[in-house]
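As a warm-up, study this chain.
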Amino acid sequence: MIEKDDWRLLSGPVIGREEELKNIPLYYIPFQPFSEKWDHEHCTFCWAKFYLHEECLQEGYCTEPQNSRNADWICPECYEDFKEMFGWTLKKGISE
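Now compare it with the structure written out below.
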């Protein structure tokens, strides 16, 4: 179990959003850019990069069934580390 003082909970975009991210459905989907200008995303917890390049994450857990302006992305490692703490459920994405 991850400790409440894990660095990923104490820095970055997750600060102040813990309750908002609890008990929500997540979708395991391939990353697709939102637009030509908005071509990548970052994990809400660790800031790992989602991008269509072999050195970056190309699929992960998303708060929306497809990438959108309001979507949060969570990398597979952070999903495994925080799924119990946040009580996430897994849903099927539109691509499945």
